[in-house]
Amino acid sequence: MTKVLYREFFALVALLWSACPLVLAEEPQLKPAIKNSAGGGGQPIALSASHVRKDVGAAKKMAALRWFDKMALADPQLVESITAYSSSASILARHPHLDKIAEADPYLCRRLTRWRGAARVLARNPKAYKVVARDPEGIYRAIKNDRSYAKLLSKNPYFNQMVVENPELGRVLSRYM
């Protein structure tokens, strides 16, 4: 039984092999291009600042991107759009390149400290000293509203550098601690 199956199989392979030059002589047909649009219009969708301001999910995804600092340098309004939501602002406050994002948006500290959770995450981030140096008014307001931020900020590894760069921060912390 198995010999019969093998004979039929090899006969079929020999037949296909003999027809192989005819198949190879034909040129392969190209498949049509795949369109990257959701609406079917043919154009890919680019996320603008106004779109991110309306879509929480997109804001969270953008805030989590490792190369968001380059996007922020290209379009600073994206930072403003992402910090419109507390959850995406907290994700952005954890960003490893927060100092570069602060260069793109000079009011980043104020935008992040508007939300309690994001302010706590910012105080714990080692790159916070550059954000606070660019816009100390945001952290001043946060400390005045909630004294626990002063304690969190004092545990930051770059706390000494923050006070050296901004002596006024040391005075505010001593007043509210």
What would you note in describing this structure?
- The protein has 177 residues and is mostly helical.
- The protein has 15 helices and no strands.
- The termini are far apart.
Number of domains: 1
Give the SSE string.
HHHHHHHHHHHHHHH
Helix vs. strand class: mainly alpha
Number of alpha- plus pi-helical segments: 15
* Largest sheet data: none
Q: Whole-number average pLDDT?
A: 83
Q: Give Rg in angstroms.
A: 29 Å
Number of strands: 0
Q: Which outline best applies? A: elongated
Low-confidence stretches: 36-40
Q: Span from first to last CA? A: 90 Å
Beta fraction: under 5%
Q: Percent of residues in helical segments?
A: 55-70%
Brief summary of the model shown:
The protein has 177 residues and is mainly alpha-helical. It is built from 15 helices and no strands.
List the helices and strands and how they pair.
Layout: H1 2-18, H2 20-25, H3 49-54, H4 56-64, H5 68-74, H6 77-82, H7 86-93, H8 98-104, H9 108-113, H10 116-124, H11 128-134, H12 136-145, H13 148-154, H14 159-165, H15 167-176
Q: What labels would you give this structure?
A:
69% helix; mainly alpha; 0% strand; 177 residues
